[in-house]
């Protein structure tokens, strides 16, 4: 999974420090924030950007759960 997308004008990527999706304009050599992520973003997950650059699709984590299970008579 790729946490960035290549567009004709530059690269759209997820900034893990600022919890934002940002765009690197290669011609202008400038980074602009496109969206601030209020909730979690699945580690290693890909993003996708529409061809016209108006829409960004990314997986959002609303909640995280884990189960603990007991296995009796387990043998290695």
Task: Report on the architecture of this protein.
With 76 residues, the protein is mainly beta. It has one domain. 0% of the residues lie in helices and 39% in strands. The chain has no helices and 8 strands. It has strands at 4-6, 10-15, 20-25, 30-36, 40-41, 48-49, 56-57, 60-61. It has a 4-stranded antiparallel beta sheet with strand order 1-2-3-4, with no helix packed on it. The relative contact order is 0.22.
The largest sheet, given as strand count, sense and whether it forms a barrel, is: 4 strands, antiparallel
- Largest beta sheet: what is the strand line-up? 1-2-3-4
Counting copies of identical and different chains, the oligomeric state is: single chain
Radius of gyration: 18 Å
> Helix and strand string, N-terminal first?
EEEEEEEE
Q: Which strand-content bin applies to the residues?
A: 35-45%
Uncertain stretches: none
Helix content range: under 10%
**Shape annotation:** elongated
Overall pLDDT, averaged?
Answer: 83
Distance between termini?
A: 33 Å
Number of strands: 8
Count helical runs. 0
Q: What structural class results from the helix and strand content?
A: mainly beta
| Count of the separate structural domains | 1
């Amino acid at each position: 999974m790729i946490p960035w997308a290549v567009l004709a004008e530059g690269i759209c990527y997820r900034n893990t420090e600022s919890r934002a999706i940002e765009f690197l304009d290669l011609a202008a050599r400038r980074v602009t924030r496109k969206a601030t992520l209020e909730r979690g973003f699945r580690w290693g997950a890909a993003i996708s950007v529409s061809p016209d650059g108006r829409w960004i699709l990314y997986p959002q984590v609303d909640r995280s759960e884990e189960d603990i299970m007991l296995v009796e008579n387990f043998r290695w």
